[in-house]
Write a structure and sequence with these properties.
CATH class: Alpha Beta
Number of strands: 8
Largest sheet: 8 strands, mixed
Order of helices and strands: EEHHEEEHEHEE
CATH topology: Aminopeptidase
Structural class: alpha+beta
Strand order of the largest sheet: 1-2-3-4-5-6-8-7
Number of helices: 4
CATH superfamily: Gcn5-related N-acetyltransferase (GNAT)
Shape: globular
Number of domains: 1
Distance between the termini: 23 Å
Length: 188
């Protein structure tokens, strides 16, 4: 069962990151990483081609209140996003009664390979289970996205099934791999 989430007053911290609500003043940082070819495409959206496009999406993040700005703790610079979305598991009979959200994330290419996204995901998992009282968290990656697969494996998710995901902005269907982590499986 999908459950509403409002992160507009939430601030999460890790050793190297702060996850917080988006602000209009984050536009330049957002555009900087979202405009790099190949970054958004790994998550199913086209890289941004204008500040106006980034502004429109940033405003939706602010309005929908379900996507964290991932910021570098030392500099305050926004380096990615991590959202809590309706899950594929909500449509599966076995999981339909459970309160489950789907994690989705993007990280600036300049910060890949430093273990930052697993650090962010683990803290958001803690928040989901301890603060939101979710029963489970799902996550998916496109079959060819090895970096996301590694994040998912490091964070303890259990593979459930393969599926297909139609990425409208790219007008392309991807094979995806779907995972789940139940509250009792989480090793904070």
């Amino acid at each position: 069962m999908d459950t509403p989430v409002d992160i507009s007053a939430i601030r999460l911290e890790t050793a190297r990151l702060v996850l917080r609500p988006w602000k209009e003043t984050d536009l330049a940082d957002f555009y900087e990483y979202a405009s790099v070819e190949g970054v958004g495409e790994m998550a199913g959206w086209r890289h941004h081609t204008s500040l106006d496009e980034s502004r429109r999406i940033l405003n939706s993040f602010i309005a929908e209140k379900n996507v964290f700005a991932v910021t570098d703790r030392k500099t305050g610079k926004v380096i990615g996003s991590l959202g809590l979305h309706p899950s594929w598991a909500n449509r599966e009979a076995a999981y339909a009664p459970l309160k489950i959200k789907e994690l989705g994330y993007v990280l600036s290419r300049d910060y890949w390979g430093q273990g930052l996204m697993p650090e962010a995901v683990r803290e958001v998992l803690r928040f989901c289970f301890e603060d939101l009282g979710l029963d489970g968290v799902s996550i998916s990656h496109f079959r060819e996205n090895r970096q996301s697969r590694r994040v998912i494996e490091k964070c303890g998710f259990r593979f459930i099934q393969n599926g297909e995901y139609y990425a409208g902005p790219l007008n392309k269907t991807f094979e995806d791999c779907r995972y789940l982590l139940l509250r009792e499986e989480f090793r904070g």
